[in-house]
Design a protein that fits this description.
Blueprint (H helix, E strand, L loop, with lengths): L4 H6 L7 E4 L3 E5 L7 E7 L14 H17 L7 E4 L15 E5 L10
Antiparallel strand pairs: 1-2, 2-3, 3-5, 4-5
The structure holds adenosine monophosphate and zinc ion.
């Protein structure tokens, strides 16, 4: 989709530090990391928010969790643990309207998910 920053990253029109890519998913480092490990896992299909996920996306969403699993093992943070967050809509503070999964780790994360 035009004017979508993550679609531009997917099309390599904007640079990013890619940590994983296949036909349907890309993962890259967050440009403003909130933890030592902060990877964004993004479907190449432009889906605006979690509320736009439909039945036809179920294999894609399952695949994203497989990709997160693989990245965590390959990059060595699976054992220590990590957190996966998807913001949706205004109250969550979602900034980029292309669904994405924040993978956060590399330190002991706060006990509370929200303040
Ligand atoms: P959200 O608030 O859930 O929409 O998260 C959007 C995330 O995208 C933020 O953590 C930003 O730091 C990150 N972000 C925005 N632009 C870029 C970019 N060009 N490359 C990597 N991460 C980005
Ligand atoms: Zn997009």
């Amino acid at each position: 989709m035009e004017d979508c920053i993550f679609c531009k990253i997917i099309k390599k029109e904007i640079p990013s530090t890619i940590v994983y890519e296949d036909d349907s998913v890309i993962a890259f480092n967050d440009v403003n990391p909130a933890a030592p490990i902060h990877i964004l896992v993004v479907p190449k299909k432009h889906i605006a928010t979690l509320l736009d996920v439909t039945e036809e996306d179920k294999e894609l969403i399952a695949h994203i969790y497989e990709v997160i699993n693989q990245i965590a093992r390959e990059r060595g943070f699976a054992e220590n643990g990590f957190r996966v967050i998807t913001n949706c809509g205004r109250d969550s503070g979602q900034e980029v309207m292309h669904i994405h999964f924040h993978v956060l780790g590399g330190k002991k994360l706060g006990d509370k998910i929200v303040e």
